[in-house]
Amino acid sequence: MADIAKLADALDAAVRDARAIPKLTERDPFDVATAYLVQREVIDRRKARGERLAGVKMGFTSRAKMVQMGVDDVIWGLLTDAMVVESTVDASALIHPRIEPEIAFLIGREVRSPADAGAAVAGVAVGFEVLDSRYEDFKFTLPDVIADNASAAGFGFGSWHPPRDLANVGLIMEIDGRVAQTGSSAAILGDPWRSLRAAARLAQEAGIALEPGHVVLAGAATAAVPLPAGAHVRVTGAGLGSVEVTTR
Ligand code: OOG
């Protein structure tokens, strides 16, 4: 039987020391259900240190990401307020950060069921996610990446817009003025609203309440790119404006 506390300790220490660790399944294989228990335990530790749940993120909702990372199932992770990026990211506090464009949803009232999730959304925005796998070489199996909270390290979003059709929003991610990735929100499960409903379903199954003020990241529309120190990144979504971040 996997030792949840021990696995959570290893991941928690990797975040705090900004040091990569070997894949946890290498020594001690575990399944997806166990991986989610580890994820929960890691977040519980962060909460015990004063962090609050700020939302959830969906992962591997696009082909580009599945192919990039060699996995084939949708996953999710938990976001805390300490992961919110206002305008700068300290890359030196991370292991090997990457960034990817996102569509974000702002929850306006408690989500009672997956079917109710759309009506509970108060706003939509273009966003980004900073990923930082705690594993060596950014390589993992599905249970490893789930235990590692879906590589979540930080996230940001532009200004909120009224809920709208998001089936084909053009997304551009520029790094230092050069286009690094382009894509369409259609890459996110065909429509990011589908990803929102999937998040609501997973939250319900996990007994986690999606509450007013929480943010749901629908998942990247493109592959992620390395995020070096001293970079300036801008992600623009057609009709949604843009969001910028610099690294130091
Ligand atoms: C895991 C996180 C995947 C996405 O948007 O697909 C993800 C990773 O690639 O490290 O967040």
From TrEMBL:
SUPFAM superfamilies: FAH
Superkingdom to which the source organism belongs: Bacteria
Keyword entries, A-Z: Lyase
Alphabetized InterPro entries for the sequence: Fumarylacetoacetase-like_C, Fumarylacetoacetase_C_sf, Hydratase-Decarb/MhpD_sf
Domain Fumarylacetoacetase-like C-terminal: 96-246
Identification of the protein by name: 2-keto-4-pentenoate hydratase
Biological source species: Actinomadura yumaensis
Lineage per the UniProt record: Bacteria, Bacillati, Actinomycetota, Actinomycetes, Streptosporangiales
